[in-house]
Design goal:
Largest sheet: 2 strands, antiparallel
Distance between the termini: 52 Å
Radius of gyration: 16 Å
Order of helices and strands: HHEEEE
Strand content: 5-15%
C-alpha cells in the first residue's frame, strides 16, 4: 500500500517537500489518488479549498506562527498539523 504522505514529500518530485507552498508549480501529488482510482470529487475539493483559503485571507490577512517549534503533525494516511498555535496581530474595529 502506498503511503500518500511519504509520496507527497518525495524530494525527487518536490523542491522543498517539507514546506507548504500553496502556488507550487511542479505539484504532482497523489493526495486524491491516481489513474482510474482518482477521487471523483477531487476538482470540487480543490475549488472548495481555494474558496476557503481566499475567504480566510480576506477576513484574517495577517497571522503568524506563535512558535514554529511547537507545531506537531498528525501521521497516518492524512498528514496535517495537529497543533498549530497562531498569533493574530491587533486589528482596529471596522
Amino acid at each position: 500500500m502506498l503511503t500518500f504522505p511519504a509520496a507527497n514529500r518525495d524530494p525527487e518530485m518536490f523542491e522543498n517537500p517539507e514546506e507548504v507552498i500553496i502556488d507550487r508549480q511542479r505539484n504532482r501529488h497523489v493526495a486524491f489518488g491516481s489513474g482510474i482510482h482518482r477521487c471523483a470529487g477531487s476538482n470540487l475539493a480543490r475549488m472548495e479549498m481555494n474558496v476557503g483559503i481566499e475567504e480566510f485571507l480576506k477576513m484574517v490577512p495577517e497571522f503568524e506562527l506563535a512558535d514554529p517549534d511547537s507545531v506537531t503533525w498528525a501521521g497516518g494516511q492524512v498528514r496535517g498539523p495537529r497543533h498549530l498555535p497562531v498569533i493574530f496581530p491587533s486589528r482596529t474595529a471596522l
